[in-house]
Amino acid sequence: MQQGTLMRKVKSKSWKKQRYFKLQEDCMTIWYQSKRTGKTESAFSISDVETVREGHQSEVLQSVAEEFPPERCFTIVFYGRRGNLDLVAGSAEEAQCWIQGLRQLIEPRSFPLTFALVSRTWIRDWFQKADKNKDGRMNFKEVQRLLKMMNVDMNEDHALRLFQDADKSESGTLEGEEFVLFYKALTQREEVQSLFQEYSEDGKKLTLLELTDFLREEQLEDEGTEELAMELIDKYEPSETARSRHVLSADGFLMYLCSLEGSIFNPQHRGLWQDMSQPLCHYFISSSHNTYLIEDQLRGHSSIEGYIRALKRGCRCLEVDCWDGPNGEPMVYHGHTFTSKIPFREVVSTLGKTSWGNSSSPLPSMGMSPPSSHPQRYGQSTAVQGISVLPESAARRHWVAQGASLSPTPQELKHKILLKGKKIGRLEDTLDGPGDEAPDVSDDDNGAEAEEERRRAKVRGTQPGSALQKDKETLAQALSDCVIYCKSVPFRGFQEARSHSRPSEISSLSEAKARKLIRDEGNEFVRHNAWQLTRIYPSGMRADSSNYSPQEMWNVGCQIVALNFQTAGMEMDLCDGLFSQNGCCGYVLKPPFMRDKETLFNPSDPSSREGPGPITLTIQVISGQQLPKVANSKEGAIIDPLVRVEIYGVPADQAHQETKYIENNGFNPRWDETLQFQLHVPELALIRFVVEDYDKTSRNDFVGQFTLAFANIKPGYRHIHLLSKDGTSIPPSSLFVHIRITE
């Protein structure tokens, strides 16, 4: 990577300043300084960087797209709520040099390298914070200050012994590798060492046979165990001599336990592991509400960044509310509120560039509220022109190629964008063949559509044809033709839906309406969702962009459970936890008993589920490692951590238990407590591990969490790598647990 590169830092269309950017010698820190004054403005650690985007993949860079070509532009995205850093390099070659260099630093090729890099980066970061006089050395007073910063309340005599043992030069200070030795002594894992010695005959190494025994007896690996043991030695043993002898040292054993293979999340479920050839209605689909908003619902900022963030997070169902704008240009914003507006064409352009970055799965619903004033036809045709630039937009060509299948699959619809919205007439009448124009809505009472409208009007007690005529008057035919598999229809009860609706139709329900149906007609709701899509959206009272619990909606098989992605909390933890599997493609296959149109399952009665009886989940919470301090805590404050395990699922499975709190130790707390849960419908259960800072006088403070579906749990001795409140990684913070599952 080049160092001291002159680039433009862009904050807006009018704010573009030249800055020198330089990678420090430690390859862990980047600073930048003003070209004019030479003064260093800021610096950041590589560990703070989440990803690097190429081209015009931010609202700021899109605003200067005419001035700077995409090959010179890139965006550095940070963890948490820190703003993006938008940059323009002097040439495409310089841009690629920085993009590829940064990606190599933040995305190592193997997890062991990630673990080692994170640890070393973490050590360097703390060293620099504690080295007040910046002389590259630390005396014992600075070390004591560092221990407080690292959440460690250690006996002074013990800390001095560790300091003196690491001070090989006997200079009274620690520098470079001496500090690394001090850190290693500080992080000695007694619980891991005792487990290692339990299976090691000489207490120094695990032979291939001993490691195989551990994997089979403790980790419950039952297939190809000896081959797996060989792979783990080759992958995680740091000593070349030990690798050649096919043995695993204590350091290698710890590396394995902290790796992807040692994680609580089954590594085989991280990739695409589920059947993707089922109808769309057989999947839970990651879905967002008012995707364009990044703040509240009334006065919040609308931004294409909302779409970029949601897509990067695995969302596959986006919302685009189009309203009339100046000169017939549709605008996207929350109608009848004071939210800011963004041009529809910018949204479409962003979706065309970013929809398939993380997943090739279809976007099953780009929900569109069409421009709605009477001279709106021009605005609607403008919207159609915008949609037409999308690759494989709306999946019309798929329909023609595949024939009139009313139940397409994610596999068939890969790289397609489907529009959810109103549609004139029946789906079958609109697509007679490639290039054919859709017929106008017929007023002929003998037509099939009119017959259906008469049936529905009879049920509703309204005048036949009134709804159809209204659609004709307000909806442009070209926009109607873009709606293929997700025609929006009002929900008027399960009986009418079963009699008159089609699999290609979708109904949207408020959270309150959905809860009433769950309470009164739970089984009918599950059956309905076995053959037709249902979308749930937040109450209009949630002006602060808060969320409802998606679990109760998933319990009855609702596929599109729309959440406010910009609001962190338990609800988004559940969403991230469910969709972190299956390659993060945004689709999770529902259990078999929720895909049967004649199912007897009702979430309020677990015995209605066909299959084996309840299972017992036993979790021994052993220890924690390097837990972060609470945000905005007082200097020198040390947390009193406890662990709470929460179960989300059908009502009978909802539960939580917690450990005692450990006083003044966020660095290496030991709990050694066992929690036990009974799960009646494990297929729907999500497990959330929460670490909090105990406070006897007020509400506990959040420290970290990790959520996953029960189906993805790997039993045995496992590490849980904690996430922050907004779902980003907080390395190297983790929990060490032992998991058992019994019937």
Distance between the termini: 55 Å
Total of helices: 23
Taking pLDDT < 50 over at least 5 consecutive residues as the criterion, the unreliable ranges are 108-118, 371-378, 397-404, 433-453
The CATH architecture name of the largest domain reads Alpha-Beta Barrel
Strand order of the largest sheet: 4-3-2-1-7-6-5
What profile does the largest beta sheet have?
Answer: 7 strands, antiparallel
* Beta-strand percentage range: 15-25%
**Portion of residues within helices:** 25-40%
Quick one: how many beta strands? 28
Tell me, what's the shape? globular
CATH first level of the largest domain? Alpha Beta
Q: Rg, please?
A: 29 Å
CATH topology of the largest domain: TIM Barrel
- Any idea what the CATH superfamily of the largest domain is called? Phosphatidylinositol (PI) phosphodiesterase
Task: Write down the overall mean pLDDT.
Answer: 84
The secondary-structure class comes to: alpha+beta
Any overview of this molecule?
This protein has 743 residues and is α+β, with helices and mostly antiparallel strands. It folds into five domains: 102 residues, Roll (PH-domain like); 77 residues, EF-hand (Recoverin, domain 1), CATH 1.10.238.10; 73 residues, Recoverin, domain 1 (Orthogonal Bundle); 291 residues, Alpha-Beta Barrel (TIM Barrel); 130 residues, C2 domain (Immunoglobulin-like, Sandwich), CATH 2.60.40.150. Helices cover 30% and strands 22% of the residues. The strands form six sheets. The protein has a seven-stranded antiparallel β-sheet, covered by helices on one side. A seven-stranded mixed β-sheet has the order 15-16-17-18-19-10-20. The longest helix has 20 residues. It is globular, with a radius of gyration of 29 Å. It starts with a strand and ends with a strand. Keywords: Calcium, Cytoplasm, Endoplasmic reticulum, Hydrolase, Lipid degradation, Lipid metabolism, Membrane, Metal-binding, Nucleus, Repeat, Transducer. It is an enzyme of class 3 (hydrolase). InterPro entries: C2_dom (IPR000008), C2_domain_sf (IPR035892), EF-hand-dom_pair (IPR011992), EF_Hand_1_Ca_BS (IPR018247), EF_hand_dom (IPR002048), PH-like_dom_sf (IPR011993), PH_domain (IPR001849), PI-PLC_fam (IPR001192).
